[in-house]
Amino acid sequence: MPEESKGFWTTLPGVLTGFAAVIGAVTGLYVAMKPQTGPAQVTESSSVPTSGPAVTPTTRPRFHLIVGSSPTRGDAVAQARKLRADGHPSEVILSTTGVYAVTLGSYPTQREATSVLKRAKQSDDAPADAYVLPPERWKATVFP
């Protein structure tokens, strides 16, 4: 009598493959059914040391005149403090790319921000690479 061959699904590799497929399907279903959340929100506990000022989300659109940036909050705050000592209403904002941007000021319209930028460059109050950052490109005010 000829020996009957076992099917793949009855062998150990077949059972393990089937088990992996079920785990993958359940995981995919969980991810698909999980409520969607937006990008990670910056909170005081997640990215700002408790010893410094809190991150302040803002609701009004503002155009920022950016004169410097830093990957670290401390360096950006130090730059902003120097500008404030010189009489500028400087802030530090967190951009959507995760960089801390130092402002020379913030303005309600792009036209006003661009006008101030032009004058600041002419009077050497702003570096040549300063620019206007629109509201959709930043997340929160970090300092002051």
Can you put this structure into words, describing what you see?
A hairpin with a 4-residue loop joins strand 3 and strand 4 (100-107). The longest helix is centred in the first third of the chain and has 22 residues, at 12-33. The protein has a six-stranded antiparallel sheet with strand order 1-6-3-4-2-5. It is 36% helix and 22% strand. The radius of gyration is 27 Å and the shape is rod-shaped. It is built from four helices and six strands. By secondary structure, it is an alpha+beta fold. The chain has helices spanning 12-33, 44-47, 73-85, 110-122, and strands spanning 56-57, 63-70, 92-95, 100-107, 131-133, 138-143.
Uncertain segments:
37-56
Structural class by helix and strand composition: alpha+beta
- Termini separation comes to 88 Å
Mean pLDDT: 78
Number of helices: 4
Fold blueprint:
Elements: H1 12-33, H2 44-47, E1 56-57, E2 63-70, H3 73-85, E3 92-95, E4 100-107, H4 110-122, E5 131-133, E6 138-143
Antiparallel strand pairs: 1-6, 2-4, 2-5, 3-4, 3-6
Keywords:
144 residues, alpha+beta, six-stranded antiparallel β-sheet
Q: Quick recap of the structure?
A:
The chain contains 4 helices and 6 strands, in the order ααββαββαββ. It has helices at 12-33, 44-47, 73-85, 110-122; strands at 56-57, 63-70, 92-95, 100-107, 131-133, 138-143.
